[in-house]
Amino acid sequence: MFDEEGYRKLFVEESRENHENIVNNLLALETGDDQQAAIDEIFRSAHTLKGMSASMGFDAMEHLCHSMEDVFSLIRSGRREATVSLTDLLLNCTDAIEEMLDAIEAGGAPSDEQSASLVLELQAFAEEEEGGEHEPSPGAAPPAEIPAEPAEDADGRPLYTLTVAIDPSSTMKDVRAMLLLQNLEELGTIHSTTPARELLEDGKFDGPFEILIESEAGEDALRTIASGTELSLLALSTPQSLLDAPPVIPPAACEETQKPEPAPEPQAPRPAKAEKSREIKNIRVDIQRLDQMMNLVEDLVINRGRLEQIAKKHGIKEFDEALSMVGRSVSDLQNLMMGIRMMPLERIFNRLPRVVRDVANHDGKEVEFTIEGGETELDRSMMDGLSDPLLHLIRNGVNHGIETPEIRKASGKHPKGLLRLSARRDKDNVVIEIEDDGAGIDHEKLRKKGVERGLMTPEAAANATKDELVGLLFEPGFSTAETITDISGRGVGLDVVKKTIESLKGTIKVETEVGRGTMFELVLPPTMAIIDVMMVHINGMRCAIPISNVVEVAQTRPEAIHRIGNTEAILLRDQTLPMHRLEDMFGRAEKSNTLVVLQNDGRRCCIVVDTVDGQQEVVVKPLSNIAGNCRGISGITIPGDGDVVPVLDVNTMI
Amino acid sequence: MGRILIVDDTMFMRTLLKNILFSGGHDIVGEAADGAEALARYQELKPDLVTMDVVMPKMNGIEALKAIKAADPAAKVIMCTAVGQEQMVKLAVKSGARGYIVKPFQAPKVLEEVKNVLSA
Question: How is chain A split into domains, by residue range?
């Protein structure tokens, strides 16, 4: 069955979804697109959160959600406006909820320190508007006409008086009374109740009440209905007639003499096909299990490669056929697995509007934040690493990029700055752009700062290209902002962002123009584990190069190689490319004329290889902690013959 | 024991209710996460009883109740509700709901109400 821990996980997960929904709709409320829809959504999510937390016994959270729901019920019925100060208060509430969820997820119970004062604030808010207003409940509908049965055939039918009490523990005694009356009405006609029916249905009664009903259904049927949930039948009087004269018919006799009509409609026999069992559309799987499965698939990929090598050696036709079938299944399985692990970027994008709002408010800026391509998918292992860098770049965009409304106006721009976050799939990569239309970065300022911080010699700075200057942004200890703010200057610089992105096998690039804005572009592989590589031999040793880094393979003549200082270069198709022999990595060996042209981030170089062995899909395993980081190598792979082959990290070579 | 369709927009509540009902020997034949799905599932499964959440996206519980009742006047629907929603539940009762259970659910009460509505 389902244990406590299972509930807790499900609770946290669905609560987070609802929490996010509240935050996003609070923000939508401010931008004012479809206010009613936003209010409805907040109300619904607060209500759902309340119900779930009550079920888990998290009282503090329940109270907080309840108060939020109350406030939104006022707003929904138009009795209160959603003001900025209210939005702030409600956002504080969502923060408190998030903290509680964190505590719950960590296995604890949320404390009510913070929430108690928020509840008071919310209540004060709800009450201050209540004064003088009349009380139409938002959900109340005009009382529906209850069809009364015709009274004319009343004479002769037995009358009963029921005395019923509702269990004091009942949470809605008015509804319970109403249900009872309604159910009784299916058996006959209710002539009166004491207290009156309206009072009963409004819950304005204490203790037992009486119902006078005329019915042919018989005592047992009445007894069943009147002893339902939370009901106790204290007395059932002997039937009398409505008119004084007619003789009293005992209920038993009544049943015999008068054919009792079946009260509920006869139920039609159910079609047999209704037995079809329910299909499950979605299941939730622990992410660790997915990781385990992914490891198994990786093993399969490795062993498929091994089998292929063995097959090549023996050349058995039947074996080859069977292997190619297995190979196809493994590929399909692998694709499927990677697909399952993919998550839409929305999962991390959704948090960002809140961040933008907070930073903008803090800095007194006006920002219009747009998100595009949230449906673009990434492997979840990437998702975890991407969250922090994105957060940083977004904060950065508002904090350093976009100017205050006054400055913007003065420079002829719209007072509201634009911040755009977009994601898209580009061939095998996912491209994420963060673009603002702010002040941009002054290259001359960078030049000066670079020298000041000792990152460049004055001579180098004087000759530095724009790209080189912008590259300074990613150097440790470089910050162009005059003062370190508590918003984006939390000791984390763009250098950390760059490192994180690179650890995800991605690249980061920045384009900026003074007065026009800045754009950061992140290019990420959608998944890290399995990649296409080109297998080569360098100086007699095997090595794998990610295919995404390979531009072409070329043959060259020794005379085309030129020496420039300590390095060699080659003129290839009118382009001068630096040439590396990787002798320090792979040892010195015979001269070869085969070149592989590599590229990373738009820059190119070439390396000398002995032979190109072909293209292969491999699993890249990170270097173990024992080996530590090894410059030039991003990991190792086992291509199938049991050999351990390094994977070249082109990024560090260019 | 009855064949029951559970309607709630959160898997949490559905699971909670499912386990309570299961412990009472009922057969959970289906689940739905909103009103529109509830109607479709009802027509497909023809359950003996539906537990219907009131507040849901797309089509709320009251609208779904009405739609189910329109399709099958004999349908037995009990509302899952919370303190403060009396007016909504009354509306549901007038629209043909046969019972109600209040969150946070207490297993004995839930089972009692389900048993009573099934046997009525």
Answer: 4-129, 156-242, 287-341, 345-441+480-524, 530-652
